[in-house]
């Protein structure tokens, strides 16, 4: 087992110092406890639980020796813990962050000081393609002007020619929000492409795309297997994000309907459908409850529903309307099993029973658990 030297300060990983097998046992027991008396399938873990995060954020600061460092905020504080080698972040991302700090120190480019409102470098955000190895790098700046940016980018690209595209955003506000509103592309196309379950996806800085692609493939493959979709099925994908599940199941279904409140995500979903020449997937930027109300009134059909809501879960209005469509199966994917249990009770009162429960470990060394529940009509 690898030992994290930052564990006591960082607080990002609640299970650091615990053997991975034991972590999986703990998570399995949590799901069993929540879903008593139902049988829970063995949790799907990782073969190698290290360096799995392909989405990385870092915040810049100045050390006591006046060197530029970067890391993450200490738990429950606004102090930055400098981190050179995070055991759960992609190794290439770790290397690039280290180089950024070295080059910034060499060129005397100052980190942004939130209290004084001075300095330049505030955050770095990286996306590393799992299958393509393409790299998106976004610098979030504390001011519009980036002195020495040409020399900085030249040295960085010499050191890391594998970087696919570099962008800058400005965020000088006193806020916990990392990214700025407007983006400037310095190099490349401003996005990368990756492949998930055989489908190509375009990923920009504000695209929602899973942090752990290796486990995401296992999660979605299992969810789709449980859904048992055939060529005559109409599939509803609620809270669809950028259409990952929608586009993966499209070739197996008659039609897929994806619904998501975030307009940027729906725009990405449409781009990704075009990218893969998928024509039987339709996407709607709407609140799922409002969409479902209209869908029911129009007496449209759904054979299979896949729902993947945020941590807060779904809501009773949506679930009641969904149940009224009498889909043969509902696959509920959740990043918060506590709200999942609450929502499932609503569906159980409206004619559905639990058939299969499958936990997946998406975030080793943390307390988070992803869980799939297959429900069928009585």
From TrEMBL:
Keywords: Methyltransferase, S-adenosyl-L-methionine, Transferase. GO terms for biological process: rRNA base methylation. InterPro entries: MeTrfase_TrmA_AS, SAM-dependent_MTases_sf, U5_MeTrfase_fam. S-adenosyl-L-methionine binds at residues 210, 239, 260, 308. The keyword rRNA-binding does not apply. CDD domains: AdoMet_MTases. GO terms for molecular function: rRNA (uridine-C5-)-methyltransferase activity. The keyword NAD does not apply. This is 23S rRNA (Uracil1939-C5)-methyltransferase.
């Amino acid at each position: 087992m690898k030992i994290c030297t930052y564990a006591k300060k960082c607080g990002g990983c609640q299970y650091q110092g615990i053997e991975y097998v034991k972590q999986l046992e703990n998570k399995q027991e949590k799901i069993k406890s929540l879903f008593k008396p139902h049988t829970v399938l063995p949790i799907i873990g990782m073969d190698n639980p290290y360096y799995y995060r392909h989405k990385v954020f870092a915040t810049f600061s100045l050390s006591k020796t006046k060197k530029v460092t970067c890391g993450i905020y200490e738990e429950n504080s606004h102090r930055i813990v400098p981190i050179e080698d995070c055991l759960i972040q992609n190794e290439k991302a770790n290397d690039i962050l280290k180089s950024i700090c070295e080059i910034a120190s060499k060129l005397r480019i100052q980190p942004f000081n939130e209290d004084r409102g001075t300095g330049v470098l505030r955050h770095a955000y990286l996306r590393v393609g799992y299958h393509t190895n393409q790299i998106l790098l976004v610098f979030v700046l504390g001011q519009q002007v980036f002195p020495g940016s040409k020399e900085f980018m030249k040295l960085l690209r010499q050191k890391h020619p594998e970087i696919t595209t570099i962008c800058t955003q400005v965020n000088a506000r006193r806020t916990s929000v990392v990214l700025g509103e407007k983006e400037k592309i310095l190099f490349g196309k401003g996005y990368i492409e990756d492949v998930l379950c055989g489908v190509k996806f375009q990923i920009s800085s504000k695209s929602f795309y899973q942090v752990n692609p290796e486990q995401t493939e296992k999660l979605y493959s299992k969810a789709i297997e449980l859904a048992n979709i055939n060529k005559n099925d109409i599939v509803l994908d609620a809270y669809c994000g950028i259409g990952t599940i929608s586009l993966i199941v499209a070739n197996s279904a008659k039609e897929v309907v994806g619904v998501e409140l975030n307009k940027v995500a729906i725009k990405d979903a449409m781009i990704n459908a075009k990218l893969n020449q998928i024509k039987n997937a339709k996407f709607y930027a709407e609140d799922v409850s409002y969409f479902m109300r209209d869908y029911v009134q129009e007496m449209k059909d759904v054979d299979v529903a896949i729902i993947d809501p945020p941590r807060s879960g779904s809501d009773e209005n949506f679930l009641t309307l969904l149940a009224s469509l009498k889909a043969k199966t509902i696959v509920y994917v959740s990043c918060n099993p506590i709200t999942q249990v609450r929502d499932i009770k609503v569906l159980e009162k409206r004619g559905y029973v639990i058939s299969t429960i499958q936990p997946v470990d998406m975030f080793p060394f943390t307390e988070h658990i992803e869980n799939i529940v297959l429900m069928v009509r009585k």
